[in-house]
Amino acid sequence: MKTSRLEAFSDGVIAIIITIMVLEMKIPHGTTLAELKPLTGTFLSYVLSFIYVGIYWNNHHHLFHVTKRVTGGILWANLHLLFWLSLFPFVTGWMGENHFTALPVALYGFVLLMASIAYWVLQSTISRDTKAGELLRSALGKDFKGKLSPLLYLCAIGFAFLQPWVSAFLYVATALMWLIPDRRYERALEVEASD
Amino acid sequence: MKTSRLEAFSDGVIAIIITIMVLEMKIPHGTTLAELKPLTGTFLSYVLSFIYVGIYWNNHHHLFHVTKRVTGGILWANLHLLFWLSLFPFVTGWMGENHFTALPVALYGFVLLMASIAYWVLQSTISRDTKAGELLRSALGKDFKGKLSPLLYLCAIGFAFLQPWVSAFLYVATALMWLIPDRRYERALEVEASD
Amino acid sequence: MKTSRLEAFSDGVIAIIITIMVLEMKIPHGTTLAELKPLTGTFLSYVLSFIYVGIYWNNHHHLFHVTKRVTGGILWANLHLLFWLSLFPFVTGWMGENHFTALPVALYGFVLLMASIAYWVLQSTISRDTKAGELLRSALGKDFKGKLSPLLYLCAIGFAFLQPWVSAFLYVATALMWLIPDRRYERALEVEASD
Amino acid sequence: MKTSRLEAFSDGVIAIIITIMVLEMKIPHGTTLAELKPLTGTFLSYVLSFIYVGIYWNNHHHLFHVTKRVTGGILWANLHLLFWLSLFPFVTGWMGENHFTALPVALYGFVLLMASIAYWVLQSTISRDTKAGELLRSALGKDFKGKLSPLLYLCAIGFAFLQPWVSAFLYVATALMWLIPDRRYERALEVEASD
């Protein structure tokens, strides 16, 4: 089976997730700056989650660029990833509304952790089930970022109960790490093309 | 007519259904574990419905993989299926918020029942209206799961008024039954290809 | 320009409209049948609107099936149609919540009327701007349904202030009229193919 | 990499933005004209934002029509644009609910300003990163509208604190300016084709 419908469905789900998060920013009733202020936390956590969902979409885009065929296992590994991403609006809203207090910050990290594990499972399933496996493995290389991120999320979950702002900093730092252009897939495809 | 636009539209509707269900998990105002606890029911019913909608998307994906042409009848049979799926967020939220009490559990089963009937109607319409009929029929075989599921939902509706947890168990069991990899379509396509 | 992106965007908007209408059915807090009863109006108006949006999607699907090229005028005529369709969730919820009283019923008819005019404008723009004009005109023929519907909506708006149930009957009757299979496009395409 | 998935994802996000804005029009509880009246502001700001999002979709459609390849930079420039567009429902609702008072009107202008800058960044990234650069530059010409719009938004932000209705007028005027058919891309493509 081709990947087009799986990509279209994932695009749809991710597009909705990234957009409904903004609905957690409730419109204030007054019109003064003072009334906008309590929304700062919600806005900052929205920006952070927007970037994270953007990173996932980006990586998903690259991942399926080297995948040619879809198996039943890939379909479910993909749905599993979408499940954890679908919890972003909830944890984003909860963390933002409570201005980065302990438990919401830890739960945010937990969802990030589970999403990163789900992404890793999806990658492994594709690498095992399809002929794209070799290309994918050469593209990923040591997959340094993919291995470091869950560790950083684990640290952040721990720090949430001591200094939640350290956790917030770790979330931002991990996001920035992923924002650095990643040319692994392009390089692997070029290598393949030049063979 | 080709199936691509019908698939894109269905993907869109199913993607929205699977994502807005999470909106029923209202963000709690406090930040303690005690305040997360009342959400357990909503979360569990969300997970269950996510899996069900995922199963429907999966089956829809397989079904239209062997369908080449769309008729007016197929368009409406497909919209009929989407209608019942669109009621998932409502019944999921109601069942979850009330911690699996009788009537919400029965209504959840009723929507599952109607969706399974709508899926069966869609299958039959495709099998009758298109040349894919033969391929589809050979792929479905005796369609054991398709015939057993409505019966299980009917049982669950009955049990809802006696022991709602039995119904919940039946919903989970039926979902698991569908999660077992189903290679009917792959096999039928391989048989066709080898002819 | 090709029609694919316009179709994908319209599919997305229509898929969201048809799905968020269900959010107007607020989950009741109790679990008795008595608490579901006030939702009857909302449910019935949801079913009606689901069918109407389904009809529009169906007709849109057929219309762009004979359209090969998109112009700036078509883009905006299409957005104009989507605008009126986007008001469906609002008028559906208002009419349903108030159990089909005068003003909500009239406003519902007004949005139906404007949508049917917008559809007619879109049809005319395509027929004028593209080479598909001739094929489209032969497919539409006298466009009996397209001309009768706005008149029926006008009648229904009038009746809303006398006997709103007559209006509701007219809305249902008009929807049923459109549900009758419409083979104009198929026939026109067959005629063209056989030439 | 091809542009198709980026276009599909953007279509999804824009379709959701344009549709969920209507959710800010809360259904009134009564059924009299008097109860609809407070919604006038919300409705007018909805119409304005619908047109703006429509313009952005239109321009996006044209822009990617001359873009053949997607780079990492383009992916993120596109997400940056979508981020600012995703704030439309919030500022539209706030401005509408408060009947065009100072701060909401200014914030609306700020989001318009940032979206226009984000669009300009996207354009520049495409023009720099891809071979379509030359075609795009010749299509844009002096990009008069693209340069004038941010200035008009800046003026409108200033006026918001003096005479918000002047700002509203500027928003409407800028939108109308973009509605005037823009044949730059068509012309550039024709020139290219005739070479």
From TrEMBL, chains A, B, C, D:
<keyword id="KW-0472">Membrane</keyword>
<feature type="transmembrane region" description="Helical">
    <location>
        <begin position="9"/>
        <end position="27"/>
    </location>
</feature>
<dbReference type="GO" id="GO:0016020">
    <property type="term" value="C:membrane"/>
</dbReference>
<feature type="transmembrane region" description="Helical">
    <location>
        <begin position="39"/>
        <end position="58"/>
    </location>
</feature>
<keyword id="KW-1133">Transmembrane helix</keyword>
<dbReference type="GO" id="GO:0015252">
    <property type="term" value="F:proton channel activity"/>
</dbReference>
<protein>
    <submittedName>
        <fullName>DUF1211 domain-containing protein</fullName>
    </submittedName>
</protein>
<dbReference type="InterPro" id="IPR010617">
    <property type="entry name" value="TMEM175-like"/>
</dbReference>
<feature type="transmembrane region" description="Helical">
    <location>
        <begin position="70"/>
        <end position="91"/>
    </location>
</feature>
<dbReference type="Pfam" id="PF06736">
    <property type="entry name" value="TMEM175"/>
</dbReference>
<keyword id="KW-0633">Potassium transport</keyword>
<comment type="similarity">
    <text>Belongs to the TMEM175 family.</text>
</comment>
<keyword id="KW-0407">Ion channel</keyword>
<keyword id="KW-0812">Transmembrane</keyword>
<keyword id="KW-0631">Potassium channel</keyword>
<dbReference type="GO" id="GO:0005267">
    <property type="term" value="F:potassium channel activity"/>
</dbReference>
<keyword id="KW-0406">Ion transport</keyword>
<feature type="transmembrane region" description="Helical">
    <location>
        <begin position="151"/>
        <end position="180"/>
    </location>
</feature>
<keyword id="KW-0813">Transport</keyword>
<feature type="transmembrane region" description="Helical">
    <location>
        <begin position="103"/>
        <end position="122"/>
    </location>
</feature>
<keyword id="KW-0630">Potassium</keyword>
